[in-house]
Design goal:
16 strands, 7-stranded mixed β-sheet
């Protein structure tokens, strides 16, 4: 749970009055009422999915009764559904709280909003704005400070447009102006908040075409897709497969999604791979989106993982940050793989900061 989310949860619960609330272990809060302590296990999700609900329902009963879903906001229908299933929640954006855990029952309405605490509207982060956020995260996990000029260049945006987005990200608490290096302003990207904003943005979905490519193993499937690069074609593995390549989490490779340029006919890729289009049973998905933002910063897996197996070092994949966002929106175990990679990005960032 990011520090900004934790602070909002603590502040809202303390507003109920008569409670003592303090952080416990990782992901826990300890709530004390008249000397009786209850440990809340927080399950943070930046958007509601059926998989989030399923993960909570599958928990052992003794843990499930203390789990609290922490989420930006819920629709009235979702709130009713969670009440019916005896699931507690805290909405850190609206302030609504519904807790039904041992020794504790709290209901708080949405907190009155003011112009000061109303969420700052951001551009859709699926295209050009997402590319700026991606650049901020990519450079931000390498060093503490960045400049607008280098972010604009890396993301392919104009400096004027990047400057406007920077102002909005500052208001959203995801970017901090630190000072100047000579005549140049420097900025500190807050990676956890940037990822949260990007994940929370729904954005338009890519155009998807499903293929079946016969292969003996998942490694053979990856190798076949990698041959696109050998033929000079532009591509990048994305989604859950990319997140698992960056931070191995699954015992077996999931179906592969590969970004290809909008100008490339999917039929040409299918012919090159000797694959066939299918309506069901696909094991390879071709993704396309106007602007090809996912391809701009993609590169060999070895660029991010120096310990990548030799057979996979040359595979082109989307950046770790983009893989987190794409996997978090997937079904099945996608959100779990995304969370594992998100934590690794933040751990590496903290480790780099400690070494400086």
């Amino acid at each position: 749970m990011g520090p900004g989310v934790e602070a909002k949860v603590l502040q809202r619960l303390r507003a109920a009055g008569g409670l003592e609330v303090r952080p416990g272990g990782p992901g826990d809060l300890v709530v004390s009422v008249r000397g009786t302590e209850t440990v809340l296990h927080l399950e943070v999700a930046h958007r509601f999915t059926e998989d989030v609900l399923g993960d909570i329902e599958r928990l052992p009963p003794r843990k499930r009764e203390r789990v609290v879903l922490v989420i930006p906001s819920l629709s009235p229908r979702r709130r009713a559904e969670l009440r019916h299933q005896d699931i507690s929640w805290i909405e850190y954006r609206t302030g609504a709280v519904h807790l039904r855990v041992p020794h504790l029952a709290i209901d708080l309405p949405e907190a009155p909003s003011t112009e000061a605490d109303r969420p700052t509207p951001l551009p859709r982060l699926s295209g050009k704005a997402g590319g700026v956020v991606e650049a901020l995260i990519e450079l931000g996990h390498q060093r503490a400070l960045v400049t607008q000029a280098e972010i604009a260049e890396l993301s392919g945006s104009t400096r004027a447009w990047t400057s406007r987005l920077f102002s909005q990200l500052v208001k959203a608490g995801a970017l901090e102006e630190v000072g100047r290096r000579g005549m140049t302003k420097e900025w500190h990207p807050k990676l956890d908040e940037l990822l949260r904003l990007w994940i929370a943005d729904e954005g338009p979905s890519p155009t998807v075409r499903g293929l079946y490519l016969w292969s003996r193993t998942s490694s053979d499937l990856l190798k076949a897709v990698g041959e696109l690069g050998a033929d000079g074609a532009d591509y990048a593995i994305g989604g859950v497969a990319a997140a698992d390549l960056h931070e191995p989490t699954l015992t077996g490779l999931p179906d592969v999604a590969a970004w290809i340029p909008m100008a490339t006919p999917p039929e040409a890729v299918a012919a090159r791979l000797r694959a066939e289009f299918v309506d069901s049973g696909a094991n390879l998905f071709l993704w396309q989106s106007p602007g090809d933002a996912a391809l701009r910063m993609a590169g060999p897996l070895a660029h991010w993982r120096g310990d990548a197996p030799e057979a996979r070092r040359k595979l082109r994949v989307v950046t770790p940050a983009r893989a987190v966002v794409e996997a978090s929106r997937a079904s099945g175990r996608g959100p779990e793989v995304a969370e594992s990679l998100r934590r690794r990005i933040l751990e590496r960032t903290r480790r780099s900061a400690d070494e400086e």
